[in-house]
Amino acid sequence: MGETPEGVNRYCAEEGMFETVPNISEGRRPEVIRQLTDAVKKVSGASLLNCSSDPSHNRSVLTIVGEADALTRCLLHLFTVATARIDLRTHRGEHPRVGAVDVVPFVPLNDTPMIACVALARSVGQKVAARFGVPVYLYEDASATAARQQLEDIRRGQFEGLATKMCNEKWQPDFGPPTPHPSAGASIIGARSILIAFNVNLATDDIEIGRRIASRIRLRNGGLPYVKAMGVALRHRSLVQVSMNLTNYHRTRLVQAFAFVKREADDAGVVVADTEVVGMVPADALTDTDIPELRLKSFTPDQILPMQR
Question: Buried-most residue among 73, 117, 156, 180 (CB within 10 A)?
């Protein structure tokens, strides 16, 4: 499928610098999160730039940069920890998920071509399936079919509906067994451009307000282009969150997304408590913004991505 093994090896060996942002279904147990980050830190040639964990989502997002070989070793170490310590049969959280290591995107940095990310995603997907017995779906640029390009389509039904979903021939995985791993589910691995995970937290516990605003900001409902959104209850803070992915931050800027949500919140009589960037943000995404105006919580210069495509 797609690149031959020789092509995969060639691109992985010769091409560039990558970012990977594994999303892992654990945000509540500090000792497990520490094991995950330690697994990355021990790999020479890879740098852990950020780890963001949320107990309501019950999810951690790691940002790692490096060359292909180092990132491959990092991810195999992460899967070793996650498959041993995370059991989705007992996992509960606000964020949808199908796997212990739920999503692994590869992002090209500097002059690295996207095709190198595609090759790396397929190479890592094959290794994960073979070593851990975890089914792997390829998404976005790494996907071989249009039906599997969108992350939300693959994840629809979540872990609880995965076994039934995989009975459908069109939802057989790209790599690995035809049934879910009993405790680790499946993993979604792919290649994409840089996106910004941006959350606006509202001072209300009414989840319907968050869901309504999330629905309205989506393009298909007359909202903003290149925005994916969902309403989430942050029970540990008694707040509601409009959780967004800005998939093209050049076309829809952080300030535009913030202004849209704030306007809708004002109309609902709700105050914006604060906002947050999950993981890293490209430096040029902030050039026309005022960080105090965005009400960013706990944002530091360390969250500015030092390398961009």
Answer: 117
Q: Let me know whether 126 and 262 are in one domain.
A: no
Active site residue 95: yes
For the record, the structure tokens of 192 come out as: 């994409």
Task: List the CATH number of the domain containing 275.
Answer: 3.30.70.670
Q: Shortest CA distance to 73 belongs to which of 20, 111, 28?
A: 20
> Rounded to whole angstroms, how far apart are CA atoms 33 and 237?
20
Q: Does 173 lie in the same domain as 76?
A: yes
Domain coverage including residue 253: 196-305
pLDDT in tens, 15-72: 689 999 999 999 999 999 999 999 999 999 999 999 999 999 999 999 999 999 999 9
User: Residues 77, 95, 181, 250: which is the catalytic one?
Assistant: 95
Per DSSP, the residues of 180-222 read -BTTTB-EEEEE----EEEEEEES---HHHHHHHHHHHBGGGT
Predicted model pTM: 0.91
Which domain CATH number covers 78? Answer: 3.30.990.10
